[in-house]
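The following block was generated as part of the benchmark described in Methods. Ligand: flavin-adenine dinucleotide.
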Amino acid sequence: MHIGLPDPTRNGALAPAVLIVGSGPAGLFAACALLRHGVMPRIVERLLAPHGETRGTALQPAVLEILDRAGLIEPFLRAAVRIRQVQLLGPHLQEIATAKFAGIGCKYEFQCSLPQWRTEAILREHLARLGVKIEYGTEVRAIEEDPDGLRVMLESGGRSETFTTAYVLGAGGAHSVTRHSMQEHLEGATYDGRFIVADVKIRLPSPPECGRVIVGSKGFGLLSPLPDARWLIFVNREEADIRRELPAAEAAIGDFDAAEAGVPDGGAVLVRPDGFIGFRAAPANEATMDALDAHLTTYLVPGRCSRH
Ligand SMILES: Cc1cc2nc3c(=O)[nH]c(=O)nc-3n(C[C@H](O)[C@H](O)[C@H](O)COP(=O)(O)OP(=O)(O)OC[C@H]3O[C@@H](n4cnc5c(N)ncnc54)[C@H](O)[C@@H]3O)c2cc1C
């Protein structure tokens, strides 16, 4: 049985009692949870189509337990690579510390690592099987209280719609219309600094099922395995480096200081931690990824690492 509100515009059919704003992981998972309890939500998303971004990649053991309880764990176990340890390394890849998930007392003593677009696709596929479709290109513009519930103003393809619902579940991310409609402010602070976040297909010599944080005098780099021989690379940039274009690869090789970057004789790799590429956490597209991939290749130890 599904729960809803009588909708006079639908000849007595039930309108969804819950409107979910946003189809990121929070909105999609909330929809899965509501469906388990017999509530069929309506989900609107202002993007025209799903994104393809690699962020939010590490699903922690506690999140895996929640997915398990929701009956959703299997596709995540199949799609993700498992990270069982994270190494903290210094110059020359000297080990400073290693954190292992073994023995933490959870059912899943590892992180599942996969791009956020894949996480969202898994949740969307589950919802589609249960008959829920995401309404793309539909933006919530305002939410007001109404004697019958909440009046929500939607806009889709230049057309406006007013929709009354009992509950609005605000999953619109950081700049949420739901939060604004309640005169609430997002608490918290933004980290200082500028970072490169990239998803690249390269082969890196690294222990299996291991994430690495490598610190040097100019900053840090995070290397985290993803499915399909890809890596999430997160590197800080120098504040002063505001270049928006890549330097020529030859010039970059000339700049490269292997010892500073922590590349040992035994062969390993680090993206130079002083910032060398001109985008800030940009969404991946062919051009930026090709440029970054080519550029990263210049930082690999020849013969030890190779690009696929
Ligand atoms: C570059 C980058 C790198 C990141 N890296 C990491 C990481 O390494 N690890 C990590 O844990 N987290 C990371 N994050 C954060 C992670 O992506 C977020 O925590 C996560 O996406 C939050 O999920 P969410 O569902 O709450 O919101 P979102 O994923 O932001 O989804 C909100 C959705 O709501 C839609 N929306 C917003 N307003 C409206 C509206 N009015 N009407 C209709 N739709 C609306 C948006 O289009 C969006 O699709 C990163 C974020 C960014 C930007």
